Each structure stands twice: as C-alpha cells, then as structure tokens.
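Team,

Forwarding the record for the chain on the shared tracking sheet. I've put the sequence and predicted structure together so nobody has to dig through attachments.
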Amino acid sequence: MGLDIYKDLNDLLNALARAICDASEEAINARGQFNFVLSGGNSPRKLYKLLASKKYRNKIDWDKTYFFFGDERFVPRADSQRNSLMAKEALFDPLGISESHVFNVITNGTPEEAAQRYADSIMAHFQDKSIEFDFILLGLGDNAHTASLFPNTTVVKETEATIKSVFVKELDMYRITMTAPLINQARNIAFLVFGKDKSEAVYQVLEDTTSSVKQYPARLINSNDKKVVWYLDTFAASRL
C-alpha cells in the first residue's frame, strides 16, 4: 500500500492527476484502451475539473478512454444526486467525451435489474475476459464506506467480482455498486481523501487492526497490494 500525504490540496490533486495520466499511457500502450472507474461525491469534482483543464487535457488520449462508475444512486437519469451527472458537468462535457465511451448505470426497472444490466454491459466491454480496470478512483465516507459498500450491509459480505444492488437503510435509498472483489481486480486503485472530518475513518481503516470489515468496509480493499495508493492531505492523515 502506498501512502502519499500532502500539506496542500492542489499538490495532492496534481499528484493524483499525474498518476492517472501515467496509468492511461501504460494501459493504451499495452492494451489499446484506458478503462477508468470514477468516484462520486463532492471530493473528486476538483480532480475532474483539473483533468479537463489545459494542464492535463492533452496528456490523456480521451478517444481511447472508457469511463465507468464504482457506484451510483438508484435515482432517475437527470437527478442531481447522480454521480454520473457531476462527472458529466465537470469532465465529460468540457472534454467532449462521446456518450459511447461512458458506461452509465441505467436505473430503469428494479435495483436488481439495474445492477445486472450494468454488470452485463461491463462484461460485454471486456468481451467476457477477466474484468481488470486500469484505474479505479475511490473516496472514503465519514463512516468508512467506499463506493456503496456501507457498514453492516449485505454487499459487504459479497465474494463475487460483480455489480450488486444494496439498500442503505441510513440513507433510505438503493445504490448500485461494484463489489470489493471486483474493485480489487483493478490494476491501479487510488483513494482520494481530504479534510479533518475524514481523519477518524482513515485511522479506523488503515491503523486500527481491531476494527471489523463489516463496520469499516473500506478495509475490504486490498491495502497490502502495491497497486493501492492513498492520497491524503495532512488533515485526513492527522491521526496516523
């Protein structure tokens, strides 16, 4: 596990942007495309805008980049809560990304049907080969959830590398999420975490060996693998 800590948030975001650029170059050179899984929430918005800026927009071959979402809220396509809508505004529209390169979660039907439909679309993209994303970006909630792997939910126990629907009682909402085994198959995984309010969750996930995976689901992500890097500011890392 890598641990990169920055005093300045802009330095953190630039370091992560460079890592994404490097991963994209390696993936395109080796396999002809870059499969990039995005995170939702407020934290990555500045990163997406940075990637779309003059500084980085020409450092990635966007025509060979395909976008996925680690999780999505089970709400209508135009709902402001959707992770995909934020990414569209901050990244896809400024770069002119083709809709055919964005794998959105279609929320027609039941949550279970939406999860299966998304899993099927991903499998088709990888042509039924092992699903190994080139780069997965993750966040961390105050309660140590990542993607939509929330504490004490059924999906935390999932052993299959796939997409699942999960009802999050505390939010009174269904979510569609990649399971931990699917995330762990990725070639590169990066946590983007900043702010004092995340320091307790960071401590519980990275240092408190007595804490349970069920209670702190981000511990499901393979922290012992060199492919996992945590990008933290000094506030989020203050308890380490």
